[in-house]
Amino acid sequence: MANIDAKQVKELRDMTGCGIMDCKKALVETDGDIEKALKILREKGLAGAQKKASRIAADGLVETYCHMGGKIGVMLELNCETDFVAKTEQFHELAHNLAMHIAAYNPKYIRREDVPASEIENEKEIARTKALNDGKPEKIIERIVDGNIEKYFKAVCLLEQPWVMDDSMTVENAIKEVVVKTGENIQIRRFVRYEKGEGLQKREDNFADEVMKQAQQ
User: pLDDT tens digits, residue range 165-176?
Assistant: First the structure.
């Protein structure tokens, strides 16, 4: 059995925010392997965070983020339970990183429950038609459709996207890790992402030349 010293315990505690005894127990269980101990604490923490999800989170902050010299902007409302946690460095860092993630990944919804049923049906029909056109057997068509819908949720739903700071976890799990550290329920209430020129018809390269020609007539 590995000899667990205070330095290892402190390192693991700084990484996770978990209690001293929990960190020491995880290190003993993994013979001092920090990465394996971290995985154990993450799994336990995520289970504990799930229990807090039903608690009311009415405090928090509104975070703003601009990217590429103002070409992309994000406004995000992140909620927690108390003003105390809303003022912590961990909470502010999470809000900033979430806004940065939204700028990079451009999600359409927070969670899969937010996706309109009509949109899901449309995606299913597209996947079904493609599978039939590819000559896939009828008996596996629905499995293919279900698989494509799962991929669609992971692409458009913020909580299911790979975390911009560590793509080995999802955004939801990144939030749960902060829930474990703060001891409070944390929820994304809403967000909006702006991109300069989005939705506007771009001018043709020769637009100025056409204007000049018309002016000379």
Answer: 999 899 998 998
